[in-house]
Automatic annotation (TrEMBL):
Pfam families: Glycos_transf_2. Gene3D superfamilies: Spore Coat Polysaccharide Biosynthesis Protein SpsA, Chain A (3.90.550.10). This is Glycosyltransferase 2-like domain-containing protein. It comes from Algibacter mikhailovii. GO terms for molecular function: hexosyltransferase activity. It comes from the Bacteria. Residues 6-135 form the Glycosyltransferase 2-like domain.
């Protein structure tokens, strides 16, 4: 019998989009699946749509996020995982589409090569899927999947991954995060399971570009999201050890200060100095020098408006 794959979808006010997503699941060539939709407090008629699908196909299951769980996609994903029964797990978004052979292609690859994590590619489409706006580039592992992912050398998001249940059972998505939560979860799993990763360089997921997509844009005005994104980068930096390759250390430092540039540019003084202080205690001399440079440069920028260009030059020279 074919392995059961659990597809877990968090949703919020997606009544106008989710039917396309569910139809793409029904069309899967691998038919032994269950689809668990967890509603995060929708105020539209999402529930009626899911129940309509449930009446026609008992492989669909519908839950509402318990009131004692945090609001947000992370809590919905974690709750959905607890309700799942599959040996393999696929988290998906309620506004994106699966190619008809997504599950079959990833599952067959894992079974054939005896691995536990399959990563495919995704293309980014216009809101009505009429044209591709960003075509995926092939992934290629150079050091290992963990190092390459945390330094953004390879692109992975949750909808592109098929997980064997055993590799994710020890982990949960951090429900306190409002930004970079997928990056945080994936890096935690890959850190100890990078040898289990298979890259399937086929575009099998269609991501919809629209103003309120779950993946969304980085809004500096939302301080909570800024903090969330910086905290995740700080976690990865804190995992640096003497065994971490020097190129990886350098890239991680650059990524941290690149993210901090947004805070610098918009003169978020308290946030900037808070995250400079947070990394000053790390042992790497490179980091200490960068903290001092940026701290002095910000003082100049704050009063004169000059220094943003030089900030980027510092990054390129590190």
């Amino acid at each position: 019998m074919e392995d059961l794959v659990s597809i877990i979808i968090p949703t919020y006010n997606r009544a106008n989009l989710i039917e396309e997503t569910l139809d793409s699941i029904i069309r899967q060539t691998h038919q032994n699946w269950e689809c668990i939709v967890v509603d995060d407090g929708s105020e539209d008629h999402t529930d009626k749509i899911i129940l309509k699908y449930r009446e026609k196909d008992k492989r669909f299951h519908f839950y509402k996020r318990p009131l004692n769980r945090s609001k947000g996609g992370n809590a919905a994903r974690n709750f959905g995982f607890k309700k799942s029964r599959g040996a393999y797990i696929k988290w998906f978004d309620s506004d994106d589409l699966m190619d008809h052979d997504l599950i079959e292609s990833q599952l067959n690859d894992l079974i054939k090569k005896n691995k536990k994590i399959s990563v495919c590619l995704f293309d980014r489409y216009s809101s009505d899927f009429s044209n591709i706006e960003i075509k995926a580039k092939p992934n290629c592992i150079k050091l290992n999947a963990y190092y390459d992912f945390v330094t953004t050398k390879i692109k992975i998001n949750l909808p592109t991954v098929l997980w064997h249940r055993t590799v994710i059972e020890p982990f949960e998505l951090d429900e306190s995060l409002t930004k970079s939560q997928e990056y945080d979860f994936i890096q935690k799993v890959l850190k100890n399971n990078y040898k289990e990763v298979l890259l399937l360089n086929m575009s099998l997921v269609r991501v919809r570009n629209h103003a309120d997509s779950i993946t969304g844009n980085y809004f500096l005005q939302d301080t909570k999201k800024v903090k969330s994104s910086m905290e995740v980068k700080l976690r990865v930096l804190n995992d640096i050890t003497s065994d971490t390759p020097i190129l990886v250390k350098t890239d991680l430092v650059k990524l941290y200060f690149k993210a901090l540039f947004k805070v610098f540019k918009f003169k978020k003084t308290k946030l900037l100095y808070y995250y400079l202080f947070k990394i000053y205690g790390l042992k790497e001399l490179q980091i200490k020098f960068m903290v001092i440079k940026v701290g002095i440069l910000y003082f100049i920028y704050f009063f004169t408006g000059k220094g943003a260009v030089y900030y980027n030059k510092i990054l390129s020279n590190e």
